[in-house]
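Support reply, case 0932

Customer input (verbatim):
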Amino acid sequence: MLQSKIAGIGYYVPKNVYTNNDLTRFMDTSDEWIQERTGIKERRYADRIGETTTTMGVEAAKIAIERAQITPQDVDFIIFATLSPDYYFPGCAVLLQREMGMNEVGALDVRNQCSGFIYALSIADQFVKTGMYKNVLVVGSEKHSFALDFSTRGRAVSVIFGDGAGAVVVQPTAEDGKGILSTHLHSDGAEAEKLAMYYPGASSGIWLDEMPKWPEQELGGLLMTKEMLEDGTAFPNMDGQAVFKKAVVKFPEVIQEALKKNNLKTNDIDLLIPHQANLRISQFIQKTLQLRDDQVFNNIQKYGNTTAASIPIALCEAWEEGKIKNGDLICLAAFGAGFTWGSALIRW
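Our regenerated output:
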């Protein structure tokens, strides 16, 4: 069986920088309050009009494709991970295919939120290993800023997230022991509502059953109402403590699972790149695994949590800064809504 490798990588973040102090214009918060709870100092927000999840993904993809020394026409499959698509449907993968003038290749969207890139990378790995495709483009991109509650009511969630995109090209490799060594995926839906955005969704009908109906509603429901906006249920909902407690258990578990699969130990890791959910979670994981500062890469301080984009952005930035070298053992790990979590071990 073939091995797969990351042959090219790129990222894009919007030009608009919003510091913690900037957010105090919209809500009762402070730089100290945000940094203490999340480690975040600033984040990027896309232009309100014209810049979308897809357009950011395209910019990241262009760089990854160029670095892989191929053209958009060489890509034979697209996997696009996001929780903030341009449209409710169709997904962003076909929009990227159109925007980049690619051939009529397969296009898949992955909706696994913070774990989306790990899931997408795992799918690409299987396609390449089986010989089905030779150039798989994997994109993680998010535009959170258009759907956050920028008020004091929503500050616990809205201060965390930022916009951006990352992309990789996955190709086969003949080098023994190189490339993606293994990927590991998990889920537990028992507490799915602890981190969720309920609307728009088919479950809306459950709540709407108790509302007065008129004839045109008999066979359908409303995806969004004025009341949902006013009471905050239209925005993302998160039980921060519940997420933190689960994350600090599952992160180390899935990292150890990857190491055990490959007969390796934590001190073999050259660089751990965790999903940039919260700097306090990353620091807890580092302490649990007894890793040195130079073995863990974090950039949430600059970009906030960009969910599906956070790992490829961090991976690319670490590589550009010379923190990833040929032969290094790289571990990627994520935990997010669902709950879903996963890891990937890569010999660069």
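We compared this against your earlier run and they match. Two observations from our side: Residues 206-217 have pLDDT under 50 and may be disordered. The chain is about 30% helix and 20% strand. Please reopen the case if you see a mismatch on your end.
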